[in-house]
Amino acid sequence: MSFKQKINVILKFAAKPHILFYTLPWLMILLVLGTISQKNMGIFDAQQMYFSSWVLFLGPIPLPGGFLTLALIFITLLVKFVFYSEWSFKKSGIILTHFGVLILLFGGLITSQYAHESFMTIPEGQSVSSLSEYKERIIELSKNGEVIASIDYNDIRTGPLFKTNNLPFNIKIASFCHNCTMQFQDEEIAKTAHGMAQKVELQDIPEEKEKEGNLSGAMIVIEGADKNVNGRHLLMESVSETLEIPHKENTYTVKIGRVQIPLPFAIKLIDFRRVVYPGTNKPKGFESDIIIQDNSVEWPVTIRMNEPARYKGYTFYQSSFVQSKNQEITVLNVVNNIGRTFPYIASLIIFIGLLIHSCLKLNQHKRKKT
Amino acid sequence: MIRLLLLIFYLSIFSQVSYADTTQEINISEWSTLPIAHEGRIKPIDSFARLLLKKISGRETTSNLSASEWLAEVIFNPSQAMERKIFKASLPEVLKLEQRKNKHYSYIEIAVSIDKNKEIISQLIDAKETDWTPDQRELMRVFQNYILMTQALRSLTTILPLPLKIPENIKNNDGETTNYLALKKLEKTITERVKKIVKQKGTNLEKYSEKELQIAELSFQLKTIESGGKNNVLFKIYPENPNNNDANWLSPWEIMLNGKGSPQSAKFIREWQGMALSYQQKDGKKFNTLVKKNRELTQGYTSTIKIEKIFNYIPLKNMATGIYFILFLTIIFTSLRGIDISQYTSIISTLFNVSLATHLLLIISRIFILNRPPVGTLYESVLFVSLICALVMFIVSLKQVKEKKLTSIFIGSLSAFALLFISNGLVEDNKMATLAAVLNTNFWLSTHVIFITIGYGFCLIAGIMAHTYLFQIVKNKNSKKALQDFFKTILTISIFALLFTGIGTILGGIWADQSWGRFWGWDPKENGALLIVLWLIWLLHSRISGHLHQLGFIVGLAFINIIVILAWFGVNLLNVGLHSYGFIEGIALSIGAFCFFEIILISTLAIKAQKINRAIK
Question: B300 exposed, middle or buried (CB, 10 Å; 0-12, 13-18, 19+)?
Fold first, then answer.
């Protein structure tokens, strides 16, 4: 058998309807299992396990994951489309629809590999030029406002926190947890403890189903610094996120929080509005008047629910807000996705394809009758 | 107990006159078309009254009053309303109430019961709602209704006449009716006088003269009424700015206590005060004139409100449901008994068209009243999908009726009746309420949601037709050609089902991209829609490729009903994901029973049909 013949055999096999006949039910089974699992596992973990995996391990049994199943469907559809389509007007609707589905699947692949989701919180009247990661945490050390060391939260261990020799004092981790709760003690824990660390112990609790809900924290110990600073300190998200260590003429700051990604421009929040239905507190909509500041360019725009703003590949969505007596803070979801236009193009092609197919079918039906 | 007595005393002090006979000159029907802001929507008082009464008593009327007449009594004559037995308590033993056949109790009886159960209630308030037992749930339901009724009874206590005598020496002599407002104007004088009396005679009331007692009572009642009116925001009848649709609406107590008074609000309140007085004095002429005057401020809302009032009075849904039911029952009964009714086809078809027109009117009215597509809530989507089912079958029936066949009318009536009947179980959802912020977009509601719900309709019709096809094989009555024609119709319907669910699902992805920043998030609701699309794609492709023969395709299509119900209602039970506005409770058992019944039915029919097909071959 020549090479060409071998290729033909492979292509013929790849285009066989058997593949779709067996992969589609398997995809449906994955959908059902993955959906039900979200109740206990949380959406993210269930997605990773069932839909964003090449191989799904149910116990020790390896089974095709979502990626592999979709890849098989994509390949069979592509081969059928390119090599075995009946290129006629009669089949134009079907051809277009299949082409749209191919684009949709390809776009899905691009999105799954390159899309990045983060968020930014902007207080009214202030400018912010960095994004916060939803899941990744970090501990940073800065000297007079300039970051001099940082460590990914997944890498921290008990013992010395930063591997730098330039520090005039030691910072050690006494205990830490990825999702913490505070346990208040009746008696003072240590004489050299400061602030909340005098009365609080951190307790590790199971991680939230959605990791962004975790509250990471650490009990740190400062040694060799000023007497007023030496001892235990609590560092915990939403409770006590920064610790200032004055030393001689310098000020060192240890900060716990989400990983920050710099934006190539800044966003200033002018006004945040929560519009309610008349006579109630039920929100009708949320709006943020912002100004995108990019060097000398200033672009005022209003972001609403279902009306995001787009700039330089980033899309900003109204996601949440914080309203207190003195301040309003908007929370914007930020997505950077080079594959975002694929679903739009695919949808249009599928829509036209299905419409043509339905019209042709109806016409065919009418002609048969006459 | 003291609090309870105070509450009953507080409300009964407004019992100046005996119960007014509202059926005489007082035009409550006209009054009930005045606008009120409730749950974020401006609606006629009549709609508000129906919702309130339904929530408290489980019915939209009392034994002898309409909802509006009952509400008029509640707000204008609270002491009388307190005695009316309108509280539904399904478990009287739990509430420590006496056993009664109709299980309806008066406000006073419920107040006593709440007082007896106050310790349990305060414990339940602190506990998690999910931990409540069914008995505790019932207790808390009645308690919440009691709070609601208390607010309703106190709606106008700021302006209702008080049966109190104001001593001549502190009276303004301006001929004003004695009410809270009048007392409020005299508050400073009354407080000073009380202070003086206490200073001279101490706190022992026995030492007080008759006039001094009167002043002390005035001071006490002023404080009691004021504390009872605080936070009373239920009866929002006054628009702060009638020309702005988004403007805030206020209750009389909000105007009073939040410093929102203006010459316009004063005039408005005076008119309501006049209404209250004329209601109590049975002065219909004055009452009706004041209602007319009062409407001037809210002229802009009149047309929508009047239509909603008409909509409340004509039971379009019940009419359509009834006709569908009669048709479905007639066709199935005559078919089972072998009675030929083909000569009555045109009458049956006309009846079907009448019910369809009524159904259509119901949906159009809702669009007009809510000013949005009729698919914002689960309840609305059920009404809409039932209309789609009937409409699709109406189109199919155009040809069938000429051939004196009734299959399409049977399927249309059955599907529409079944869905309208199911919607009665979602009645909590039928408040014509405002939508969550993310849903508040007419563009996406009228594209994605309309497409997907039309798709649901086509799927259900295809599923029921597949059932009918299986029945026809089992009955072995139809000719091969008739069955083949029917199969082709089913195939066409299933292609349309794929068209609408496919496009609807993609549009949903685009909406998600616009709203949340991702086209697809494997959210349960999205997965449910995708499951329907994949099932239809699989069936159609397997039919084309020959993997499924005709019967296999039909059996697979019959199962689409289960998939649609799971995608439509079932995923809401998971309580996961961004589509959190659609969650419902307590339907798991019904869905489970439906799926079980369908699996048994389809499997039995499929096995029998397979045997018959083999025998024919």
Answer: middle
Cβ-defined contact of A280 to B514 (cutoff 8 Å): no
pLDDT band (50, 70, 90) for residue A67:
very high
Helix ranges, B252-406 (H)? 252-257, 263-280, 284-295, 302-313, 316-337, 345-370, 378-402
Does one domain contain both A110 and A122?
no
What is the domain range of residue A36? 3-115+341-369
| Predicted pLDDT of residue B17 | 41
Nearest by CB to residue B527, choosing from A35, A275, A284, is: A35
Domain count of chain A? 3
Looking at per-residue pLDDT, the higher value among A350 and B298 belongs to A350
Across B188-218, b (16+ Cβ under 10 Å) vs e yields eebeebbeebeeeeeeeeeebeeebebbbeb
Nearest-by-Cβ selection for A343 from B510, B537, B576: B510
CB distance from A307 to chain B under 8 Å? yes
pTM: 0.82
**What Å distances lie between residue B300 and B296, B306, B473, CA to CA?**
9, 11, 60
Q: With an 8 Å Cβ cutoff, is A331 touching chain B?
A: no
* Domain end position, chosen among A231, A260, A289: A260
Taking alpha carbons only, the member of B356, B455, B363 closest to residue B412 is B356
Whether A277 sits inside 8 A of B518 (CB atoms) is no
Shared domain for A332 and A364, answered yes or no, is no
How many CB pairs below 8 Å do chains A and B form together? Answer: 164
List pLDDT tens digits, range A283-301: 888 999 999 999 888 999 9
For residue B437, the chain A residues in CB contact (below 8 A) are: 283-286, 305
Cβ contacts of residue B198 below 8 Å, gap of 6+?
none
Residues in A closer than 8 angstroms to B575, CB to CB, are 39
A119, A131 in Cβ contact below 8 A?
yes
Taking only the tens place, the pLDDT of each residue in A158-181 is: 888 877 667 888 888 888 998 999
The reply to whether residue B437 touches residue A365, judged by beta carbons under 8 angstroms, is no
Residue A203 in contact with residue A182, Cβ under 8 Å? yes
| CB–CB contact B531 A28 (8 Å) | yes
Residues A251 and A279 both lie in one domain: no
Question: Which residues 6+ apart lie within 8 Å of A171 measured at CB?
Answer: A141, A160, A161, A162, A220, A221, A222, A254
Nearest CB partner across the interface for B519, out of A17, A111, A354: A111
Note the pLDDT of residue B421: 92
Cα distance from A42 to chain B (closest Cα, Å)? 8
Identify whether residues A125 and A146 lie together within a single domain: no
- Chain-centre distance of CA A202, in angstroms? 27
Mean pLDDT of B139-166: 86
Tell which A residues from 82 to 121 touch B, by Cβ distance under 8 Å.
Answer: 104, 107-108, 111, 115, 117
Among A260, A288, A306, identify where a domain stops: A260
More confident position, B202 or B600: B600
Whether residue A84 is found in the same domain as residue A174: no
Taking CB atoms and an 8 Å limit, are A278 and B248 in contact across chains? yes
**More confident call, B88 vs A39:** B88
Taking only the tens place, the pLDDT of each residue in B601-610 is 999 999 999 9
- The reply to whether ipTM tops 0.85 is no
